[in-house]
Structures are given as structure tokens and as C-alpha cells.
């Protein structure tokens, strides 16, 4: 089993961007999954650095229906986007990302978590 790391572009859609230039424009995000550390959790890193750890299942369900777990909320936005909302003591960050990027990441996490038969 090996860790999965995938980079994507997301749009910040709140006023908590680190700079006025970040507001509404594409910023890099990183999705991380390590089945050896915890096969049920994923990490998402936003510019700043801001990082959230939450159940992988939240991403799956959030592509279809609005869901939340603690400080993280995910919901579909139209047919090709998903919105992720992250709450922290410093405020709320809301980012919009292509659903295809999330689906590709989830597929890779399932492949990484599945033992290879020899």
C-alpha cells in the first residue's frame, strides 16, 4: 500500500483568502491519503498553509449530497463542481473544486488501500 498525493486547482469563494489577489481565483490545493497512517482519513492542504483531516467518506458523499463532519462541510455545486467549507478559529474558508479532481483522487485512494495479490 502506498500513499496518494494529488494536486488540483480550487477557487476561493469567501472573503478569508490570504490576500485580495487569491479571492475568487484558482489556487493550488493538495489532497493526501496514507492507508498506513489511517485508511479512513484524507488530508486537504490549502495555501497558507491550512490543513484539514477528515473522513474520506465525506468526500464521497459530498459529491452527491450536502454532508458535514465537525469543521468540514462538502456539497455538490451543479454537475461538475463541489464546494468544501472549512471552519477554524480564524474563520471560514470556502473553496470550489472540479468534481472530476475529487473523483480521480478517491479512485486512487481505493486502489492504494486495496492489497495487491501475488
Describe this structure in words.
With 118 residues, the protein is α+β, with helices and mostly antiparallel strands. Helix content is 22%, strand content 46%. It is built from three helices and eight strands, in the order E-E-H-E-E-H-E-E-E-E-H. An eight-stranded antiparallel β-sheet has the order 4-3-2-1-8-7-6-5. The protein is globular and about 40 Å long. It starts with a strand and ends in a 5-residue tail after the last helix. The model has no long low-confidence stretch (mean pLDDT 87).
Secondary structure class reads alpha+beta
Shape: globular
Encode the helix/strand succession as letters: EEHEEHEEEEH
How much is the average pLDDT? 87
Note the topology.
Blueprint: E1 4-12, E2 26-33, H1 35-38, E3 41-46, E4 50-55, H2 56-62, E5 67-69, E6 72-77, E7 81-88, E8 91-98, H3 99-113
Task: Write a concise synopsis of the structure shown.
The chain is of the alpha+beta class. It has helices spanning 35-38, 56-62, 99-113; strands at 4-12, 26-33, 41-46, 50-55, 67-69, 72-77, 81-88, 91-98.
Q: What features would you highlight for this structure?
A:
118 residues, 3 helices, alpha+beta, single chain, 8-stranded antiparallel beta sheet, 8 strands
Amino acid at each position: 500500500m502506498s500513499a496518494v498525493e494529488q494536486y488540483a486547482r480550487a477557487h476561493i469563494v469567501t472573503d478569508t483568502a490570504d490576500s485580495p489577489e487569491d479571492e475568487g481565483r484558482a489556487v493550488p490545493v493538495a489532497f493526501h491519503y496514507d492507508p498506513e497512517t489511517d485508511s479512513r482519513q484524507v488530508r486537504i492542504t490549502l495555501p497558507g498553509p491550512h490543513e484539514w483531516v477528515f473522513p474520506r467518506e465525506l468526500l464521497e458523499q459530498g459529491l452527491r449530497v450536502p454532508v458535514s463532519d465537525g469543521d468540514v462541510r462538502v456539497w455538490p455545486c451543479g454537475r461538475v463542481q463541489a464546494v468544501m467549507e472549512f471552519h477554524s478559529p480564524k474563520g471560514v474558508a470556502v473553496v470550489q473544486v472540479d468534481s472530476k479532481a475529487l473523483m480521480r483522487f478517491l479512485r486512487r485512494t481505493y486502489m492504494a488501500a486495496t492489497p495487491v495479490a501475488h
